[in-house]
Amino acid sequence: MKIRIDIRRKEGLSDPEGVTTQRALQNLGYDGVTATHFGRTIYLEMEGDDTGAATAEVEAMCRQLLANPVIEDFQIEVVG
Amino acid sequence: MKIRIDIRRKEGLSDPEGVTTQRALQNLGYDGVTATHFGRTIYLEMEGDDTGAATAEVEAMCRQLLANPVIEDFQIEVVG
Amino acid sequence: MTSMTAEPAHRQLGMTDEEYESVIEILGREPRPAELAMYSVMWSEHCSYKSSRIHLGRFPSEAPWVVVGPGENAGVVDLGDGWLAALRIESHNHPSFVEPYQGAATGVGGILRDIFTMGARPIAVWDPLRFGELEDAHNRYLLNGVVSGIAGYGNAVGVPTLGGEIEFADRYASNPLVNVMALGILKREQLVLSAASGVGNIAVLLGAATGRDGIGGASILASASFDEQSGAKRPSVQVGDPFEEKKLIEACLEMYERGLVVGIQDLGAAGISCATSECAANGGMGMDVDLDSVPVREEGMTAGEILMSESQERMLAIVEPKSVTDVVAVANKWDINASLIGTVTEGGTLRVRQHGELVAELPAASLSDDAPKYNRPTARPQYLDNLWAQGSDEAAAGDLADVLLALLDDPAIADRSWIYQQYDHQLFLNTVVEPGHDASLLRIKGTEKALAVSTDGHGRRCYLDPRRGAARLVMESALNVAVTGTKPYAVVDNLNFGNPEKPEIMWQFTETVEGMSAACELLGVPVIGGNVSFYNETDGVDIYPSPVVGMLGFADPMPENPPRLDRAEEDMEIWIVGPDAAPDLAASAFSRVIHGRLDGRPADIDTDLGPRVIAAATELAGSVPVLHDVSVGGVAVALAEIAIRSECGFTVGNVDWSQLWSEAPHRLVAVCPRDGLPELDVPARRIGTMGGATLNFLEHGQIAVEDATSIWREALPRRMA
Amino acid sequence: MKIAVVIFPGTNCEHDVVHGLDLIGVDAELVFHKQTSLDGFDGVVLPGGFAHGDYLRTGAIARFSPIMDSVVAMADSGKPVVGICNGFQVLCEAGLLPGALVANRDLSFICKPVNLRVESNTSALTAGANVGDVVRIPLNSYEGNYVADDETLGHIEANGQVLFRYSDGSGTVTDDANPNGSARNIAGVSNESGNVAGLMPHPERAVEQILGSMDGLLLLGSIPAFFDLVGAK
Ligand SMILES: Nc1ncnc2c1ncn2[C@@H]1O[C@H](COP(=O)(O)OP(=O)(O)O)[C@@H](O)[C@H]1O
Ligand SMILES: [Mg+2]
């Protein structure tokens, strides 16, 4: 089973990568871009085929290790 | 318009972050995880509603700045 | 490189028909595919030095304090009381052009392995760099990527980067140079060499798993020129893992400390082929290697691929059977792989098996010892006569403020802190004089000893006269370490050149070797190692001949209060020490920045005064607060740098206009308290006094310290923003 | 007193911290992260470096090292637990300190001395200093940008848990003096009782005049000073 975890900085906390990239895009003349945010993605391959159980386990991994609840939100998706 | 860009290291290149995180998951007892890979995601907000034109423009941004075509592949998706 | 071309396999691997014939002669048969792969990589220019080897013997490499000279992974010198220092320089030019971050990062990783292979703990890195002009966005991208890559790897692996140097010229636009030099220290009993002794000893592969990284990297990226097709070479990019390397360093040093290994070799270019064959050959032994024991990252790798892979962060240790358990335990402690992949055998044959089948069987020494050696033709380039004739040693008059500000705004002269503040340059608490000075000075904790290091290159000057240019680099580098109070002690060199198959390029090369050798002999400083990077050519355009000198200076004891650029104060006297030479403006910053010229013939070194000035500088450093050698930009720039760093103006006279910008060698600026300089056996004259808020050159004009400072500080960040 | 200095794989400032503690006469010993006990130690320092390569997130993996249970126990017992740079990041990840550290505002690594104004003198890193003191200490980090939500920031300010702010040489806290974009110029914080303290810049790099500054001795010296203080309670 393939799982994808999207991790994003909580709203309101600074996102230096996003801010810097937004500025760089402006400098290159891409004026149509009004906002840029960065996230990280973690792809897991897992044994078994119980998607419910897997999602629950991945949620535990995220809380424990993969995301930092102080500054990040995460989303889990079974992708294959 | 909201756009999501998924960027991943090309296949065959090593992914030290993935390997190290994989080992950490093992140490925490998550044995069901057989592989861990890292990617990054960039979320753009853009003016206009011509999705075709936007996608083409984002593709240009990726080649020029957002991704490193030498070692990364990217995928563009209109998400809202 | 595609199968569409019906080229025979050896040519696809970059091997000539004659070279292929010699392989057949050595083996007495056609090579198997894996064997051909091994010869092709080991006999590449990068690994075999086939175009340069016959010339490198010219370098003086002996001195009583040399413990290990050229030929090993790093040169080693004796610092007394059981302390040794290891030094080595490498280039990572082509990989850094293909992918600047990873290219530079893996360059740092590679040079560090050369150092800890010797048993030394790496304690510092330097990064001599060359790029195209920063007006072009791609050149900025390359500079940014390279600096981030060095920072990303060097900082994380925990080795401080203590300096480097940088030049910009169009010639480097499609062929940037990324050289890296590393220094290590060790106690004598920890010195390890790469020889596999003892039949039955085990070859243990340590570190990262093997993937298809950089297959053909050595032979293809570094041994051929670039053209529009270079896109096809891109899959051979390697990704660096500083964390793995850090663990590898700690694990290896722990193994040495406990005496668990009898020999060790890093895996660089040509990976397992190179490491196994060199270990075996150096010990006069053979080796049986089992590729099934090599941990791989990808499925279905062929024997040739595993043998040629340049996956980073791997070492091959030779271990006595009784120590294997302990070696594996140390590896486990540091969470790195340890795989028993081979056994040392009698007789000099390297045998490699995969899936139980023999895939290679060859004389181990033939991969290195029987590599071809070429004495390529040389020819003095025709461009020289014209350029020499055109030169003028009179500096066209101009406005001092305009000229000086233009020079201070030049990215090759301006404040380099945009670069070195991205590097950890303090770790280990050794850094006494940090980057931003002529040389960085490191103490060795627990002793009174100190080492200074400077790296120097000057492609333009070497283009105008490679022999003089190279000799002057050695003298300048020596002066740079002397002004910190150390004595020039050893040299490593990195010879970055164009296509050696062109006689003009080969001439530049041999002239350089001659000039550098003569200057080292004059100073009595041995060359303890080096590196040659040929084929720095893109679309037929060669780079300037770009030798880089890395000079190690040594002091015992270290001066109590070594000179610094920021120690000048109000009322102090300003002196110029060194010959009152005729102006030397060929390849000067003045001609380049103000007049856009590159012509004339640079002055030669002064074989009498040069060494005496260096000795005088070492002496003066014991008591004088500021010593700064006069180099790029001449006396005017040297003085400006002192004023800016000390936040104090000055007034100087008695220097004529041409002399202000002249880059004639063997001179330094000394700033000292009122009672003057100590007695010297070299010329010295007082030219002015510190004080005030301007750089005041009397009849030539003046500018505010504040204005000079902001231009100089902003030049690089402004361009890179 | 005796202090443990922890080595995670990727840590690199451990010997420098021991050297600094040595100079102020504090007995310090290196402890490998796979050890589980801190028995016999009166305090612990998590030094700088790149534990686990800073992969995943800085400090994230290190906090699960075997030694960390004992570090938490030591924190709970009120003994000094100090994190410097990467060690600070580990303490935040472990939830022993509020907030988190993210990439510098300019997305580049910064190695240079900075000025810090001391904001509280009741912690394991400031017990020997005075509020308002300005110290010059080298910064050396890529992820030194302190973030926390507004509520947390308000709370730690009200509680005296902000230990240091980036300032100019005279102690004025300005935007210009903020090297990395840290929220409210915060360079170091403590827990509520002050025994757990973290700081981005490296006091152990400012312990001898020949290295450019000795101000770090004041901060390192606060560890025994704090220990004496709570011991006396
Ligand atoms: N690429 C670089 N990386 C790190 N430090 C650099 C780099 N280039 C220059 N520097 C530092 O800037 C200072 C000035 O360099 P340079 O002008 O080349 O010195 P010099 O002319 O005395 O040889 C030196 O301390 C050097 O180490
Ligand atoms: Mg100099």
Structure notes:
The complex is a heterotetramer, with 2 copies of chain A (80 residues), 1 copy of chain C (721 residues) and 1 copy of chain D (233 residues). Chain A has one domain (2-78): 2-Layer Sandwich (Mth169, Chain: A), CATH 3.30.1280. Helix content of chain A is 35%, strand content 36%. Chain A is built from 2 helices and 3 strands; from the N terminus they run βαβαβ. Chain C is α+β, with helices and mostly antiparallel strands and 721 residues long. In chain C, the strands form 5 sheets. In chain C, strands 8-10-7-11-9-12-13 form a 7-stranded mixed beta sheet. Chain C has a 7-stranded mixed beta sheet with strand order 23-25-22-26-24-27-28. In chain C, strands 1-2-3-6-4-5 form a 6-stranded mixed beta sheet. In chain C, α7 (100-116) packs parallel to α10 (242-257), α10 (242-257) packs antiparallel against α13 and α19 runs parallel beside α20. The model of chain C is unreliable at 228-234 (pLDDT under 50). Chain D has a single domain, classed as Rossmann fold. Chain D has a 9-stranded mixed beta sheet with strand order 2-1-3-4-11-10-9-6-7, with helices on both faces. A two-stranded antiparallel ribbon of chain D has the order 5-8. In chain D, 64% of the residues are buried. Classes of the chains: A alpha+beta (80), C alpha+beta (721), D alpha/beta (233). The interface between C and D is medium-sized, with 32 and 31 residues. Adenosine-5'-diphosphate binds next to β4, β5, α17 and β16 of chain C.
